[in-house]
Specification:
It comes from Dorea longicatena. Catalyzes the formation of acetyl phosphate from acetate and ATP. Can also catalyze the reverse reaction. By secondary structure, the protein is of the alpha/beta class. It has 16 helices and 14 strands. The chain is globular. Bound molecules: adenosine-5'-diphosphate. Adenosine-5'-diphosphate binds next to helix 11 and helix 13.
Length: 395
Amino acid sequence: MKVLVMNCGSSSLKYQLIDMENESVLAKGICERIGADGSVLTHKPTGKDKYVVEQAMPDHGVAVQLVLDALQDKEHGVIESADEITAIGHRVLHAGTIYSDATLVTEDVKKVVRDCFDLGPLHNPANLIGIEACEKAMPGKPNVAVFDTAFGMNIPKKAAMYAIPYEYYEKYSIRRYGFHGTSHMFVSGETVKLLGKEDAKVIVCHIGNGASISASIGGKCVDTSMGLTPLEGLVMGTRSGDVDPAVLQFICNHEDISVDEMLNILNKKSGLLGISGVSSDFRDVRQAAVDGNERAQLAMDTYKYRVAKYIGSYTAAMNGVDAITFTAGVGENAPDLRKDICDYLGYLGVELDEEKNENVHGETTVISTPESKVKVIVLPTNEELAIARETAKLV
Ligand code: ADP
């Protein structure tokens, strides 16, 4: 069975074609600048040269067709016909309280994705466009929606509730949902396998441009740091993470800006970028800090401190922890960040094998010493494979 995985953003489309027989990637790629000048498809067939197509992509429909053409291309393709694709798995951000598991796309499912536009204004519209473009380009093929909220949807109600009047939960389903669910599900599941302990208590630190942290027992999520939207929790590239809501009112009043403008600032101009004033990219901010930029150093310190604080609270929530696993762009590739965070965790009996840690860049490795009371692990996330597995299960 071959599954095409689609991850549509507002102006981009990432894809992977995965052969489920051996879970190998046949090809992957990205369409960028959809709907803008300079659209480009970069197609990477496994074992063949990269293939770049610079062609106008006025909408996602055109982009999907170009992807299918590339996959079937005589020279750069990996399949002879689109008939070889069994199903398409789509990453979808938000399904409110309606779906907590991956589901076959129907008109009702599309309605739910549409009804959640205001909960995921950047992602849900693009996700729906991607689904509809695939339905049109490959009529009759099953499409599966895999929701980013799915893993966090099943946390206990005490962890999901905001302590605000209950009527808002009843009326609008205002609660904590959590995001990066596919990644947390995959990485916590793989950690449980690696530990060989079915009821393992695991904390997954997904630290990329977006960042979130989850606590799970036996692969079942018990708490996660993102909330109603992906703004809550850790300090991120451009997102603030936790703030006192009164900050919004204060700044709106003093700067004469609207709540929408303020949310835009919290989403796009805060985090590492906001504190450092340098960049949202971890590597740039780290370099600036090394070069003596004090705000960049402060941004780094705040970023790591927040992770350490969450690890402490999730250890309390689970009454213990067996493993702390780092994943995503920064988590997999930044030994300095992992060390600085582990330096806060001596009280848990965490002992890092510093030499091992220094040399791990994205390979699954235990980086704690054999004596460490808690295992510290680096484990690359693979959201596409997780989406493909969920899709294969349903079809
Ligand atoms: P997202 O999927 O949320 O866009 P990623 O998981 O790709 O993000 O992570 C992007 C982040 O990873 C950036 O801040 C980037 O600086 C960081 N990153 C990527 N490679 C490295 C590396 N080798 N060392 C340190 N940080 C890295």
